[in-house]
Amino acid sequence: MSSLSIIEMYAGTGPDGLPVAEKLQVRVRDDDACQLVRSPAFVKGIASGDIVKLDKESGQFELQERSGNLCLRVYSRDEIAAVNEAITPALEKLGGELDIETPRMLVYTIHVSCGFEAIEKIFDKAMANGSQWAYGNVYSPEDGETPLNWWTDILKPQ
Questions:
Q1: What pTM does this model have?
Q2: Is 61 helix (H, G, I), strand (E, B) or coil?
Q3: pLDDT (tens digit, 9 = 90+) per residue, 74-92?
Q4: Of the CATH numbers 1.10.540.10, 3.30.70.600, 3.30.420.140, 3.30.750.24, which one belongs to the domain with range 69-154?
């Protein structure tokens, strides 16, 4: 793997109807595939550690390999510091990381083996007025409701 690089990936359509791109830090591999260094704030369906192949012209990507990590996003209408203080230490105890922090958004990465129930309990307990959280790579990017189920093999008893 090479040093860190920045790529732009298609993240959806803005309110003006124009395409929106998100800049993501990656490690570019010898085969030109890219491994995400952090979970994205807006690109749906991927998380830190995933390997993608990018079409540089369109910004669209093809997922090559999942890392087993979940991407979790917290959005708030108000200052998000109190939510951060409640979630970050609890997730770090489980091996999770805070990837992005802005005044109104947090993005976390944590391995799926920590368990959906334990993770959801932390997030649900920490939500303050005006805050909500969502998975970034658990549901279909097309409808936002259909589970992707990529974790079933990872969580199978050995």
A1: 0.94
A2: strand
A3: 999 988 999 999 999 999 9
A4: 3.30.70.600
